[in-house]
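Honest question from a wet-lab person: if I give you the sequences of every part of a complex, can you actually get the arrangement of the whole thing, not just the pieces? Trying it with mine:
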Amino acid sequence: MAEITSLRHAVASLVHDGDVVAMEGFTHLIPFAAAHEVIRQGRRDLTLVRMTPDLIYDQLIGMGCAKALVFSWGGNPGVGSLHRFRDAVENGWPTPLQLEEHSHAGMANRYVAGAAGLPFAVMRGYTGTDLPENTANIASIVCPFTGETLTAVPALQPDVTIVHAQRADRRGNVQMWGITGVQKEAVLAASRSLVTVEEIVDELAPVPGQVILPSWAVTAVAEVPSGAHPSYAHGYSERDNDFYVRWDAVSRDRETFLAWMEQHVLESANVGRQT
Amino acid sequence: MAEITSLRHAVASLVHDGDVVAMEGFTHLIPFAAAHEVIRQGRRDLTLVRMTPDLIYDQLIGMGCAKALVFSWGGNPGVGSLHRFRDAVENGWPTPLQLEEHSHAGMANRYVAGAAGLPFAVMRGYTGTDLPENTANIASIVCPFTGETLTAVPALQPDVTIVHAQRADRRGNVQMWGITGVQKEAVLAASRSLVTVEEIVDELAPVPGQVILPSWAVTAVAEVPSGAHPSYAHGYSERDNDFYVRWDAVSRDRETFLAWMEQHVLESANVGRQT
Amino acid sequence: MSDDWSADEMMTVAAARQLRDKTACFVGIGLPSTAANLARATHAPDLVLIYESGCLGAKPQRLPLSIGDGILAENADAVVSVAEVFNYWLQPGRIDIGFLGAAQLDRFANINTTVIGGTYASPKVRLPGAGGAPEIAASCREVIIVVRQNLRTFVDRLDFVTSVGFGSGPGDRARLGLRGDGPKAVITDIGILEPDPRTCELTLTHLHPGATAEQARAATGWPLAVADDLRTTRPPTAEELTLLRQLEASKTSSQAGAGVA
Amino acid sequence: MSDDWSADEMMTVAAARQLRDKTACFVGIGLPSTAANLARATHAPDLVLIYESGCLGAKPQRLPLSIGDGILAENADAVVSVAEVFNYWLQPGRIDIGFLGAAQLDRFANINTTVIGGTYASPKVRLPGAGGAPEIAASCREVIIVVRQNLRTFVDRLDFVTSVGFGSGPGDRARLGLRGDGPKAVITDIGILEPDPRTCELTLTHLHPGATAEQARAATGWPLAVADDLRTTRPPTAEELTLLRQLEASKTSSQAGAGVA
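Yes, you can. This is the full assembly:
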């Protein structure tokens, strides 16, 4: 059964230096507050896994928490580049960043395999592209019935997965709805999991389109209102699109970035929203 | 986009002699009325696919519609044997029935592979049992990353899948909820599909736990109230458990069975409920 | 056997007691479902019931009549596809206990639910088949088998291996790559059998009140091993019996009424 | 170029016109999303919009600002997992048209969105990467590419092949096992390029009003093939322009207001 605890305690006990950490949320429900706590606790040498690195990983990378990134699309959606990500790849600042690069379909299937307790997934993908020669974790596999050649990708099995959801009940059952991306698979694929939620309630009233993570499949739940800001929580908050636009200028310059992080994350208490 | 049509027309145009036909519904939403129409139209040499053959396939088998059965559990749930199924296997009556036998996990994964456009699925299963030596469609496969040996099963790709659902809208979008089993996968795996529904409505009000089959993924929709009887349609009707108990006596004897089918199915108009 | 309860009631109560609170249990219909719901009503209120129809954390208010009974979906934590139950929940080893029945059982707790007599292609008796059992037997952390003990069922050699217990003995599960620990107990109407830790062979460790080791031997198609410290099962408590009978009554009344809808 | 509309508007309108009603379209954010929503507002009211975030049959009331904009989920026929979008909907070839952009494009409509210059490990410019594009390019029945035409983008040789158009020419898609037909058109701010049916090489078939073949050649990093019957794109209608500008305005106003919530 999931432990209901504070964000600070959950991050301290679940996220260790050198871990493979997945934080998911497809535009929606991105666990920014938890990432900020990881930054405040000074985790290092993380292998960060995420389909769409987004601002959340730009911040972790720029603060030197990551040694590697496993991903499929690294941009500021609708705005442009992730400058900290680019600076790490192009210039090795603040430390070199090793990349393992896939397509969305590949990453999604890798989480599916992880959730299913299988060592790999089969898909149609990557064929004819330059990805296989630059990414070790892509292989061919032959169908034992038809002889057809398909693509195999290995399971993702993070040490810890962190997601944000709308609600949990007091037993630790988690409820999310709207666009739920690969969060369920990412949690089920991991050895440990932390879910931050907008609120903890007595009863989870059913919602159309909901995805439930039963308490016994989650390690820890922490109540962090606005914990997805500047992304959004369907039914609770809207996306802070201005923040995404402003981030371009903040992140473009190393000093501006560091000053912003110092003021808004490092000196900040455990709050969800910093603008 | 799905054609909205009569059950009679849909079966006549979609189900042909010799077809591979899947009718799914896990205890819930079993498309009995459609199966009765298949019987009335005298289809022959069908390869019937279904995880849990249940009374619906007992009737099709006893009426001589099937030459083969692909399945994972053939009983009258909570009651006992399927006597027509047993008579066909044990005595070849009314015609011999070729079996392809899997586990539930294997069948579910075969539908998943079919829905995903893959020729096979990978799973952990069957190992150490006598199923592989009696079922051609089970193979070993080696993980290209870890070297581990797993089990492969080929995709199910029925010529036509038939399911029952609670509702469709006038554009042919289908909505089902409650226990939805493998219906979505079975429909997506098939070349053609027919969905019978309790009612056709103007708007599909969202329901928690709903599964939607978009109109453009379905071939035909027919309104058949009580079309799942004696199984049930969550929110519309309850399971006719007495019927399942009574079926044991009806189906035990060939003549009693034929007389019952004559009276309740062959002479019956296109109605959902015959008791 | 006492007049106060039936052998089947003792069997169900003994099975329910095997279930620890706050564990996840993969439940088949019939006696396993009754036992699991009895456990939930007594010592294991937070037992997580998982049905292969897709219901995770089912909390039925009466006994379900089938594995896809609508009552299972109504208060479940989640209702998912059948593929998801097997792939995301059973296969990775998330489920603590699996409950199985058997048409035939051998000394290594391997199970047949497929065919009896004749050949596979032309059997004397065609049984329902595998259902979820092979993967439940393989992947649950532990397995409990509930089955009436008699010579038709407890056989020296299975006519078909549908689900693997300990295969042909020690080390077989590991060799086959089966990740759960295998059968932990076989609960019968006579007593309880547990695998010998060294040989994996089923050994009679408990007799239900009134039953005898001779009775158990006579109902077993192989030379039955009997534990040196053979114990007597604690008889059903008044509470267990009351709740069990309430559960059974809820099933009968819903069955009688179900045809009306 | 006329004073009445911008080159980007002409490009969006031309892209929208490529979409037939009652087909399913895999939509990326930005210009493809604008074009798809314009098509839905004009000649293709039953166009099925599919976004990789999991929204099937999205019917946004304003232009979405991101691929996971909540407005996409609100009136969608269904919202499914990202894995399901790719595995059950894209991979089996259920989606008629895929819309892609490009940072670099070659004469066989292969696309680079990964790195420019240097090496893969140490690139001059690190681009966002593949996203859904490789499998969209492989599995949609047809692909439409929307991209501004200039020498930086229309290159003789890609620095990285992220998504395959026609590979190195005729027969390559079949050899690679790619099941869709591949790129059907490249819509630019100058005109429309279509693959030659024989050679698969992109050929300029339409010029937007006011553009010239010389202008197109000068913006292309290889000797551009030009169709003998080079046609002029029909200019945007008043209705197309009005609706396009309303869509763009809805995006700006929601963007301005979105930070308040």
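Two things worth pointing out. The mean pLDDT of chain B is 96. Residues 58 and 115 of chain B are 26 Å apart (CA to CA).
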